[in-house]
Amino acid sequence: MDDLSLAADFPQATREQWLKLIEGVLKGADFQKKLVSRTHDGIEIQPLYPKAEGSEPISREKAGRWRVSQRVDHPDPQKANELALLDLEGGADALTLVTRKAPAARGFGVRIDGLDDLDRALSGVMLDLIHLLLDAGGHGRQMAALILALAERRGHRPSDLSIDLGLDPIGAMAAQGRMSASWDAVAQRMGDTLEHLTAQGFAGRAFLADGRVYHEAGASEAQELAAVLATGVGYLRALEAQGHPLDAARRSLSFLLVADADEFLTVAKLRTLRRLWARVEQACGLEPKPIRLHAETAWRMTTRRDPWVNMLRATVAAFSAGIGGADAITVLPFTAALGLPDAFARRIARNTQAILLDESNLARVADPAAGAGGFEALTDALGDKAWALFQEIEREGGILESLKGDRFQTRIATVRAQREKAVATRKEPITGTSEFPNIGEADVAVLFPSPLWEGARGGGASASLSGSGVNTPSSASSPQGRGEQVAPTETSFSSLAQMAGQGATLAQLAGTAAGPSPVSIAPLPSIRTAEPFERLRDLSDAYLARTGERPKVFLANLGPISAFTARATFAKNFFEAGGIEAVTNDGFSDNAKLRQAYTESKAKLSCICSTDEIYEKHAEDAAETLRSAGSPLIYLAGRPGEREEQLTRAGITTFIYAGCDTLKVLSQALDEACA
């Protein structure tokens, strides 16, 4: 029997027909406001897109599976090695070696003081069978010398190893606020490093254009792309000026973008970078080749509260990075914001990717987003915006000059302020933190609590940082370490590699980094969007530790359950996002019983919850009852409407509703409740 196509028997629907149906559903509401969303770059995201015609798929550096990469960041080299071997045995085929003081170490990182420490950290790791990415921040060049010395010690040829040395002097400067020497001196070192690596037959990538520092500072997707593009172009120029052909220079580069829980934007961002870099290559007179693109799930989206939700966010991010064409993906363990992740959290991180690869088979299609109208439209729009921002950076003299003049930081700060407002008003909700909080959550295990938040230095932590090798902000040593003082001298990379092989310490190698005219800038901050709400929860925890109970708000539910449930649920989530326990009930129709229940609840705060119709008849009496009972702050769940003056006069102090400044309201509520 011939295959039948029923679709051919029906006329194709048009957009006009769809819009006519939508008008009936909207009932006069504005289509743009209700159904069209906008990114922080101002890009419109429509609710419906037609099929994209004539699109060209993007491709990874190598077809097939992406690399499953795991962070190696335990301060003790031996412990770091044990965790790394578990990861490799459990399915990872790449490692990201994060050393202490690297911005991404976030208070931890492997303590590598010399070649023997590095050898211990990578003991049993077959370097010729895995991919290795080095994340050493400002000590990248010195750590790269140690990596090469280790390869020589083990008898590996550099041409047989898949290694990204991750040298990113501009990114390190953006994060830390300082470059050890003038750009001319740094560019000369870059050229010297590549010359030595080329002579040794090194087949990996020496330099990295990393978007994490910009993403963590609150940058938009286009800003992150523009910064990465500008950094890559800056490195191309530096290497060409040092005598390296552009083809060799571009083959020495790799890229890293952040994947977050916004699926569409993450997929589009990764696809956009490949297309824009191909445009750069064409402008350089080069035939475009697929770049090596790393992705890491976003630090910015991780939370300390209800950290289990981080698993869901990381899954969406890893999925999006895989669909977007990443060559290697690193998933941050779900407890990363709390402290140093244990073996369980690391296993969940790598298994997230294993499921996507081996059960969902995401890597079997080269570019699943190709031809999809929404993805293609967003990729095109994001490309136009990012290219325009990249050109703006170029007009300012390049990424280095833009950072030195504080211009790029200022533009990122503008977007960061937009994000902060969206988080504060819960326009961008954070599940488990600002929405659906769990104030009775149990502690989650980590190897060491993070030194980046105040709770880690309290008395409740079960693990101690003492003797762990962790560098807390108060105990970090000088760049020389161990008290050694080394006179700054200009040293070639070949000499560094030789020194590393002969047993020089990292401190001695780092002593060669200082050069003429070091550069200082305003560093970009590293921020998680959940931090403002987490600080409120910390205040609640402190009150609980001091008094034995949490600050409370009494929900003055009026009328039957069917009337108040919706707003009582809203109010409960609202207040508990700030750690204020909501005391609820089955509702009241008698003010005397309302007064008695409020008094027995021992809550200071109160919030009236019901329908607008019941508010019109009973809200004022309820407010006066609560005020006379001693409630200093009385909230009403819902917008005041035309009766705001009467309600305020009756005692209502604040109205809570979707879109109000939740952080401001909760801060004031905690001040009163904890007084």
The CATH topology assignment of the largest domain is TIM Barrel
**Global shape:** globular
Q: How large a portion of the residues is in β-strands, by DSSP E? A: 5-15%
Strand order of the largest sheet: 3-4-5-6-8-9-10-11
Number of helices: 24
Query: Fraction of residues in helices?
Result: 40-55%
Average pLDDT, rounded to a whole number, is 92
* CATH superfamily label of the largest domain: Methylmalonyl-CoA mutase
Explained architecture:
The chain is 45% helix and 11% strand. It is of the alpha/beta class and 675 residues long. The chain has 2 domains: 68-438 and 499-520, Methylmalonyl-CoA mutase (TIM Barrel, Alpha-Beta Barrel); 531-673, Rossmann fold (3-Layer(aba) Sandwich), CATH 3.40.50. Strands 3-4-5-6-8-9-10-11 form an 8-stranded parallel β-barrel, surrounded by 8 helices. A 5-stranded parallel beta sheet has the order 16-15-17-18-19, sandwiched between helices. A two-stranded antiparallel ribbon has the order 1-2. Helix 20 (561-576) links the parallel strand 15 (552-557) and strand 16 (581-583). The longest helix has 23 residues, at 373-395. It starts with 14 loop residues before the first helix and ends with a helix.
Keywords:
675 residues, globular, alpha/beta, TIM Barrel, 2 domains, five-stranded parallel β-sheet, Rossmann fold
Q: Short summary of the structure?
A:
With 675 residues, the protein is an alpha/beta fold.
Write the layout of secondary structure elements.
Blueprint (H helix, E strand, L loop, with lengths): L14 H12 L4 H5 L1 E2 L5 E2 L21 E6 L4 H13 L4 E5 L16 H7 L9 E5 L4 H14 L8 E6 L1 H8 L1 E2 L3 H17 L5 E6 L1 H5 L4 H21 L4 H6 L1 E7 L3 H21 L9 E5 L11 H16 L3 E3 L8 E2 L2 H16 L14 H23 L3 H6 L2 H18 L23 E2 L43 H9 L4 H5 L8 E2 L10 H17 L4 E6 L3 H16 L4 E3 L7 H11 L3 E5 L2 H17 L5 E4 L6 H7 L3 E3 L5 H12 L2
Helix pairs in contact: 3-4, 5-17, 7-9, 9-11, 9-14, 11-12, 11-14, 12-13, 19-24, 21-22, 22-23
